């Protein structure tokens, strides 16, 4: 069994996730492919994750907001969708069918059961009623071509039906079903989230039929084959990793992970006494990259790529993660987390190193902070999930 050290894992991380400066000629699609999918619960994460992976050493510099928007809304080579762990991601359009079959189809079934129960309890109707509202909404969107939820509710008034949530709780209240219906249609691969209303940090979407992004609609793939393909892509980008890492990242059952791994046939490697997995043809040593630093945003896919994180996170979890396990903005050096960063109210990018990195790396971190500040300009980005160090630095 081949042994892969922590140092080699960090070298793989830097190279494969395009954080070591070798991605300076890459674009938004290549940045997403490098990590399978870009975490998109916080819209700003998508843009800042692309910036980190398109480098600053090349003559063109890192990708701009316009570059990412071009890929998302004009070229439509990127697509926003629910996938692993019922989480929002931005993925290459070519990858979307794999995620749809391996993850999103199950999300749709689970959420439909939940919403049906809530609608029945509210006395609105049953599953057939909900399905009828979905079909009517899809027809209205097809006529409009693109629309907001409010515009669709004007065409299909049942979208304004309200359900009381968390009755008796301080955070309870009435909620209309517009978001539920749109989520179900999107999870079924019938509609997609388009350009937001407002800036690139907005969470209010316009919607369009899936055919607008995928001519002919979302292709249908067999679930088992799609799961195996997703595992293969994760191993190529994140391997070596453990079965536990893979279970956490996909959100699948142990049985589903085992079945997918059987199809892929990975090789086992030793990770300091723990069994890890890599693709069978991916056992060659990784060349050490040149020294590098990077500022990654909250919820970046690299920081969230494994469930066991000590080999790159060290002792910094309490400062950089919230209680729910969401990571904040992180400072990286040579494949490990060495600090955190934030924006102050005036837009200044500030950071704190949590360990001694040496004078050369400290200087590189300072220079990188200035580049991130210049890229953000007048835009103020506050992470959706705020973590202890980010809160402190962002005052």
UniProtKB/TrEMBL annotation:
It comes from the Bacteria. Pfam families: AlkZ-like (PF06224). This is Winged helix DNA-binding domain-containing protein. It comes from Actinopolymorpha rutila.
């Amino acid at each position: 069994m081949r042994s892969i050290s922590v140092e080699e894992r960090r070298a793989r991380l830097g190279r494969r996730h395009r954080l070591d400066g070798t991605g300076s000629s890459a674009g938004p699609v290549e940045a997403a492919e490098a990590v399978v999918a870009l975490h998109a619960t916080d819209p700003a994460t998508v843009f800042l994750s692309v910036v980190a992976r398109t480098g600053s050493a090349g003559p063109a510099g890192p990708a701009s907001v316009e570059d990412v928007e071009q890929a998302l809304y004009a070229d439509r080579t990127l697509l926003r969708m629910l996938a692993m762990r019922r989480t929002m991601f931005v993925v290459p359009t070519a990858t979307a069918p794999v995620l749809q079959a391996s993850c999103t189809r199950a999300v749709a079934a689970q959420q439909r059961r939940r919403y049906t129960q809530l609608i029945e309890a509210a006395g609105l109707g049953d599953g057939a009623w909900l399905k009828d509202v979905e079909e009517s909404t899809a027809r209205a969107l097809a006529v409009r071509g693109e629309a907001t939820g409010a515009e669709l509710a004007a065409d299909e008034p049942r979208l304004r039906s309200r359900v009381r949530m968390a009755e008796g709780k301080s955070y309870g209240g009435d909620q209309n079903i517009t978001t539920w219906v749109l989520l179900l249609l999107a999870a079924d691969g019938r509609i997609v989230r388009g350009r937001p209303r407002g800036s690139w940090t907005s969470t209010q979407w316009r919607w369009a039929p899936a055919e607008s992004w995928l001519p002919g609609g979302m292709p249908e793939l067999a679930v088992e084959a799609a799961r195996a393909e997703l595992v293969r892509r994760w191993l190529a980008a994140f391997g070596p990793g453990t079965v536990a890492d893979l279970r956490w990242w996909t959100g699948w059952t142990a049985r589903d992970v085992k079945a997918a791994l059987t199809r892929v046939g990975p090789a086992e490697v030793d990770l300091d006494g723990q069994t890890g997995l890599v693709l069978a043809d991916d056992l060659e040593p990784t060349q050490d990259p040149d020294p590098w630093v990077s500022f990654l945003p909250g919820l970046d896919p690299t920081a969230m790529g494994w469930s066991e994180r000590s080999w790159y996170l060290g002792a910094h979890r309490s400062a950089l993660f919230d209680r729910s396990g969401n990571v904040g903005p992180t400072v990286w050096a040579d494949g490990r987390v060495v600090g955190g960063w934030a924006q102050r109210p005036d837009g200044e990018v500030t950071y704190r190193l949590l360990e001694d990195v040496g004078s050369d790396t400290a200087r590189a971190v300072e220079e990188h902070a200035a580049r991130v500040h210049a890229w953000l300009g007048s835009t103020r980005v506050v992470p959706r999930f705020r973590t202890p160090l980010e809160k402190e630095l962002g005052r």
